[in-house]
Structures are given as structure tokens and as C-alpha cells.
Amino acid sequence: MSTPPRIAVIVASTREGRIGPAVAGWFIGLAGTRDDLLLEVIDLAHVPLPARLPAGHPSRGEYPEAVRPFAARIAAADGVVIVTPEYNHGYPGSLKDALDSVGPEWRAKPVAFVGYGGVSGGIRAVEQLRQVVAELHMASLRDAVLVPFAARAFRDGGVPADDDGRLADSVDRMLGRLGWWARALRAAREAAPYDG
What we know:
The chain is an alpha/beta fold. It has helices at 20-31, 68-76, 93-101, 123-135, 150-154, 166-191; strands spanning 6-11, 38-43, 79-85, 110-116, 139-147.
């Protein structure tokens, strides 16, 4: 049996006082009951990407030295989960910089989203990201996990109330489908290079 797909869980926010790590921790806690995926957290607050990137589209081996460790982690992943807040009806600039900093490493890989924010639960950030990841040749899952009123839910180490199990079900359903896509696209990439 082949190894489980490796999934990079990207914590997008780098703001001081952010709740992104708490949201990612909650998500990993729910996802940790699965043995069919290997999850690795990549917290952008601890990824030293350069403030300015070279002009043009990056390609393998041509990255600035500071980008190479991040590129290697994305290259090793079979799929991605982006944990993103919604700031001013959009996603954080730190995430756009990370997405733009590498190129081929994203291609032909599935991506799913955990959004959080106010009443919308981060849906506007997620919908904008779907356009960006399409340009990166990623396969965006329809399913997303959305956490409304996240600042209140995660304050002082709390987690969202999930009395009806809706959020846990959303996590499980999304990861099941992400695993399917990750295995299918890994096999496809192994069979033939993606021409993207």
C-alpha cells in the first residue's frame, strides 16, 4: 500500500495577535483522528520569504535562497489546506506573497480551505482564493470549512461550539475528498509530468 498523501496545512495570517494558529490547531485536532493523511503545518509567520520577489514567473531551481526551503516543503506535499482569515473582505497579503513565491510546486495538486472571520466565516476570502489557485493550476475543492465569529470562538483558548456536529462533519467530508484528489493527482503526476 502506498504512503498516505502528505498535506501541507498553511496558516496564512502573520498579524500580531492573530488566531490563525489556534484555528489550525483546532482543525488539526479534528483531522488528527484520520490515518489516511499526513499533515504538516506551515505557519507563514515562521517562513522567511523575501519582501521582494524577482520579476517574472518563478521556476524550479531559480528561487532566491530564502524561498528554497518553502519551495521544497510545497514540492513534497500532495495537497494543501489553506487556513485563512478574512481581512477587509479578502485574504491576507502574506498568503498572496507565499502563493506567488513558488510556481511549479503548486501545480496539479488539490487545495481545500478553512476560512474564518465574522458573520461570513471567511467565505469572501475563500472565493477570491479560488481564482488565484486556478491560475496556479491547482484543483480547488468545492468543500470548505467556514468558522463564523471566530475571534469570539477562539478567544482565550476556546474552540467553536459544535453542538450539532456540523463543523466536525465539514472537516471530515472535506478531508475525505481532499485525500481522494491527492491520491488521484499524485498517481497522475507519477504517470506523466503535468504540462502546466
